[in-house]
Design a protein that fits this description.
The chain is of the alpha+beta class. Helix content is about 30%, strand content about 15%.
């Protein structure tokens, strides 16, 4: 196999090789002007923190190393065009929506989407129709079915786009092929927030990528499962149903005019890492995943959960739970006591995101097992009614929902505060977003239900971190003083 190219690394090395005198921004001057307590690793990283100098190209108008790196990215993912994102998948989701959807356009949106998708819809002044995903027996939102999407495409023939979240936060998905097919039959583009699937391009044993299935715009959080720095993401465009030029226009507007070269370098390295991910690496990773699953299956207190309703499961995502009376929040606390930090917890589960290991890498699994063995499992028995293991979700009652107010109308109304129990039936003037995963429990402009209030109270009781909800800790929520 030919040596895998890493153009941004070569470009930065060539610049450093000139022993340059930095009389330009940033102010740390290649790491030579720093606070005395600056950690050595950060000091070293600053030497790679450049700006748009001669020979270092420009992310917003690439012609040299960055252009070559993005071309290699596009070639690897087999797209028409691919882009580096230095402001996370958030900026990718915003750009793909604003570059595709106009004010007043009807859009079908998977309800368990990230807050950045909701924000993109608001900025575009779109008319979203939220389709609620299928649930498994534990109330976990898996994904949409093609038949349900077809129902709403027929009901709303003016639909201009379908926006999917694939996979879900837990690495699961369903019926991707059928959804893309029914949308394309009506010449409707499919936009996919595939934040957690950047590694799917490696093929089996990973789920299929929505790019391989024909999605029109796809956003990847490279930093979530690939070895890229935080905020490093990709955006891909393909097909004739979307205009790459419009998406590019919004990327130039929304991304920083001073893009991070360390992040861009890490994105180039992450692509090269995945491009070199071979069968030997997959075998090693498979062995490590089997090792942790076998250990947990035999464990007296822990178990692995996989949703039978999902068509695909990402082997890098592992949902575990306590077989007794510990909630997911309590289990996370036990894990953190021995130095294990999971991605998130819910009332029932803890989510582990495993590393994309290559053959020869240190076994993270062995370290995990050693730490779990240190946990003291004695727990006081609690009645089942106090465990908080509630099944179902706000999405299992309705197949779809709409905002009670348009985004334009929301800007004209006054706001008042109400006690949570008194807010049922009112229209939320703020979003309530458990974070992670960043999926709104209540959206701004959505009519509040009993189920939403009950879920808010449970989150507060368990001390879950919530974005939004200015007065939520006081048991209050902001609503619009007038409704429709």
């Amino acid at each position: 196999m030919d040596k895998i190219k890493i153009p941004i690394l070569d470009m930065l090395k060539n610049h450093q090789g000139q022993n340059p005198v930095s009389l330009h921004v940033p102010g740390h001057k290649s790491g030579n002007v720093t606070h005395p307590l600056t950690p050595p690793a950060l000091h070293e990283a600053m030497s790679w923190d450049m700006t748009e100098l001669t020979g270092l190209d420009d992310l917003h108008s690439p012609e040299e190393g960055i252009k070559e790196a993005e071309t290699l990215l596009s070639s690897f993912y087999q797209t028409d065009k691919s882009y580096f994102l230095v402001n996370g998948s958030t900026v990718g989701n915003l750009a793909m929506i604003l570059g595709t959807i106009h004010a007043g356009d009807t859009v079908l949106v998977q309800r368990n989407c990230h807050k950045s998708v909701i924000n993109g819809l608001a900025l575009a002044s779109a008319k979203p129709i939220f389709i609620h995903p299928e649930l498994d027996d534990e109330g976990i939102e898996i994904g949409l079915t093609a038949s349900l999407v077809k129902v709403y495409l027929d009901k709303y023939p003016e639909t201009r786009a379908v926006i999917l979240t694939y996979p879900n936060y837990y690495g699961m998905g369903m019926e991707l092929d059928g959804i893309i097919r029914v949308a394309h039959q009506q010449q409707i583009p499919v936009l996919v927030d595939e934040a957690h699937g950047a590694h799917f391009a490696a093929g089996d044993p990973f789920p299929p990528s929505s790019l391989q299935r024909g999605a029109d715009i796809v956003v990847h959080s490279a930093h979530k499962t690939l070895p890229a720095m935080t905020m490093g993401s990709y955006l891909h465009v393909q097909g004739e149903l979307v205009a790459a030029e419009q998406v590019e226009c919004y990327l130039r507007m929304l991304q920083s005019s001073s893009p991070s070269y360390p992040i861009m370098l890490s994105l180039d390295l992450a692509r090269a890492y995945l491009e070199g991910y071979g069968e030997e690496d997959k075998m090693y990773l498979g062995e490590q995943v089997r090792l942790i699953k076998d250990y947990l299956t035999a464990h007296r207190h822990l178990a692995v959960y996989e949703a039978s309703e999902a068509d695909w499961h990402d082997p890098l995502k592992l949902m575990i739970h306590h077989q007794g009376n510990l909630s997911g929040y309590e289990l996370q606390a036990r894990l953190e006591e021995v130095g294990i930090y999971p991605e998130l917890s819910t009332e029932r589960f803890v989510l582990l995101v495993l590393p994309l290991l290559k053959a020869g890498h240190e076994s993270f699994i062995k370290k995990f097992i050693e730490r779990v063995e240190l946990i003291e499992w004695k727990t006081a028995e609690k009645p089942a009614a106090e465990t908080g293991f509630l099944k179902g979700d706000i999405g299992n009652v309705r197949k779809h929902s709409e905002l009670a107010l348009s985004y334009e109308e929301m800007e004209t109304l006054s706001i008042k505060r109400l006690e949570l129990p008194l807010s049922v039936g009112e229209i939320a003037a703020e979003a309530i977003i458990p974070y992670p995963p960043g999926i709104p429990l209540i959206q701004r402009g959505e009519r509040i239900t009993d189920e939403m209030v009950a879920a808010c109270l449970r989150l507060l009781k368990n001390g879950v971190k919530i974005q939004g909800g200015t007065y939520l800790k006081e048991g209050q929520i902001q609503v619009f003083a007038q409704g429709l």
